[in-house]
Amino acid sequence: MELATYATRPEDSRGRLYPDFPNINRSPFQRDRDRLIHSAAFRRLDGKTQVFAYHEGKNYRTRLTHSIEVSQITRTLCKSLGLNEELGEAVALAHDLGHSPFGHAGERALQNAMAKFGGFDHNINSLRIMTRLEAHYPEFPGLNLTWETIEATVKHNGPIKKINSPYLKEFNKTFDLDLKNFPSLEGQVGGIADDIAYNNHDIDDGYRGGFFTIDQLRRLPFLDEIITGFLKKYPDCDDKGELIIYGITRSLISRMIFDVMENTAQNLQKLNIKKAADARRQKQFVVDFSPKMKQEIKQLRAFLKENFYTSTPVARMDMKSQKLVEELFALFMNDPRLLPPEWRRKVSAGSTDAAVAETVCDYIANMTDAMALEEHRRLFDPHFRF
Description:
single chain; 386 residues
């Protein structure tokens, strides 16, 4: 498919941080995608919480299945808008690499623990994984991805006006990510595909977890419209609601995608976007929902927050998860000798508190839920034998 004039072209890539071998069979962004898929951090996403912890059921989303859904939606939108699907897919697969175990509860724990040392942000941790922590090549640290993939991943939520992270500050001096401007259109697509994916799969997971009913969903007018249309077309649908839920999410994903396509096309014309650089210089997202869809999403998020995210079972699991991560961090900070040998070697006798905290944070942040639970049990349960 021919790319639009405002798409990111592989031949215009700003390149990689380190010299790399050429490849005549794959574009730079295809190679980025493949390096991400083959990374250990990507595989670990299968054991990281989306909303439900890994042990709470096998049919719920994990960070890995979420990332795959984001990738699918990103490719659909990029293709329809004439954008670079390969770059969009790489950004979608990379966007959650840096999430800690236990989702946002684990992230809160690390934010609190790292407050004196620049804080913790999963987007910055994604950067650390891509550029430092993954070790695949003898020539350089990290995955040595293209500027375009790194830039769009770090900024998929928008420009970064204030740099709190010491790592981002130092990295940006070497590989200027143009942080105060918007990401590429492909990066913007990855960000909005993330919203589309989690808004819809949280309806599915929340219903299957028993947190709300079909009748409760019908209190939202736009969902009632979808459900009414589905039942009119399939009046003999089973009363378990599973097919109805699939019908809701299928219709709502399509509705959101078409809304983004139509609204973005209008923005491209209104803002006179002719080249890839034009989108970065705007004061707003070019790839965006319409005001009507934003209002519907606001209503949906309020519903999910009230009936799902802040429910007692989720709140209790969040509390336990956050406490577990905080206890692990405090223990390792107090005595780095308790770190596994390969991580302990990163801390010397004269290491500053900041250096120790960085190592401890890297170790914990890249655990799966199961790894964190097992490590906590190993260190705190006196009946557990090493």
